[in-house]
Amino acid sequence: MAGVSLKCGDCGVLLKSVEEAQEHAELTSHSNFAESTEAVLNLVCTSCGKPCRSKTESDLHTKRTGHTEFADKTSESAKPISLEAPKITDSKDDTVAMEVDASNGVQSEEMVVPEVDKKLLEELEGMGFPTARATRALHFSGNNSVEAAINWVVEHENDADIDEMPLVPVNTNVDPPKPSLTEEEKKMKLQELRLIALRKAEKEEEKRALEKIRQKLEEDKAERRRKLGLPPEDPAAAKPSSPAPVEEKKSMLPVKPATKAEQMRECLRSLKKNHKDEDARVKQAFKTLFTYVGNAARNPGEEKFRKIRLSNQTFQDRVGGLKGGIEFLELCGFEKTGDGEFLFMPRDKVDSAVLNSAGKELQSAIDNPHFGVL
């Protein structure tokens, strides 16, 4: 029987074509490939027609869309694999095009596939993700972990270019990812955050205690008046008298409007109070909002990070279904489109200061165990 796939002898991944094998080799440095009679899995969703190349990918699709029925069309799509190397197009036309560009003072920029972590790429391919999709997910999720890459795939599953290999200019100076905190640094950071939360809780407790003392004094005072046969004290008359000029001056002071940060903080408090019995869901909402805000702040020029489909099931489960979630995004600068299908932040409405402030408020809400409780 003729081979219907190419199998990488180094990691066991099945590939559908010579082109896929070449991409895999370039990204992983693997060079041991052989024909295989084992076909690449092809599970097609009967609801929307989306093809999935692994059980993991179909499970993710089910989790995101609720679609549970898949037709196994592996045998139908399996075709004898051609071992001919892809034809290399004549570079003559390209040379002419480059000469034209040069004559106009424009120099073509060479694009290359970005480097990603080879071990993480192998793990994703081992789970059944195509090489291009796995590479794209790692590149745009920070190239840090398999979990982050899978979350990116879930959120961008319907992108038209999700299975296209990402390209970056060859001379782009890409800053290396910031080193993650060591275990010791993580412990110190966590301890610092706990101390801040504890101090804040103590202050709130002190305020409540003082308020209770004040109420007790008022009750004792009222009880003494009752025993003496005196009428209850008029609350208006009980207020200490102040010189008229001072009182008049106070009434003329302008009321300071709430800042954007205060509005955001109150919105997050309301969200938590509205869902006080769903701590895990609220925390997930805060983390998801933090991701949306961070993406918009870091990539203000990319429209996909400033546009959220309101009907997206993942968005509804994590943010849209909670009272206060959409309101918080609107405070950050997102606006509902005229057709009500998207939340969109126009490029000229991107305010780094507002987004950074939103990030700080969300981080505080995530880290402070007493947030919204006191």
Order of helices and strands: EEHEEEHEHHEHHHEHHHHHEHHEEH
Percent of residues in helices:
40-55%
**Arithmetic mean pLDDT:** 80
Classify the secondary structure makeup into a structural class: mainly alpha
How far apart the termini lie comes to: 71 Å
**Main β-sheet, in a few words?**
3 strands, antiparallel
Oligomer: single chain
Tell me the number of strands. 11
Percent of residues in β-strands: 5-15%
What labels describe this entry?
374 residues; mainly alpha; three-stranded antiparallel sheet; 8% strand
Could you write a compact summary of the structure shown?
With 374 residues, the chain is mainly α.
Mind explaining what this structure looks like?
With 374 residues, the chain is mainly alpha-helical. It contains 15 helices and eleven strands. The protein has a three-stranded antiparallel β-sheet. It has a three-stranded antiparallel β-sheet with strand order 5-4-6. α6 packs across α7, α11 packs parallel to α15 and α12 packs antiparallel against α15. It is elongated.
Strands, helices and their partners?
Blueprint: E1 5-8, E2 14-15, H1 18-28, E3 33-36, E4 43-45, E5 51-52, H2 55-65, E6 70-72, H3 74-77, H4 92-103, E7 111-112, H5 118-126, H6 131-140, H7 146-155, E8 168-169, H8 183-227, H9 235-238, H10 244-251, H11 260-274, H12 279-298, E9 307-309, H13 313-320, H14 325-332, E10 335-336, E11 342-344, H15 352-367
Antiparallel strand pairs: 1-2, 1-3, 4-5, 4-6, 7-8, 9-11, 10-11
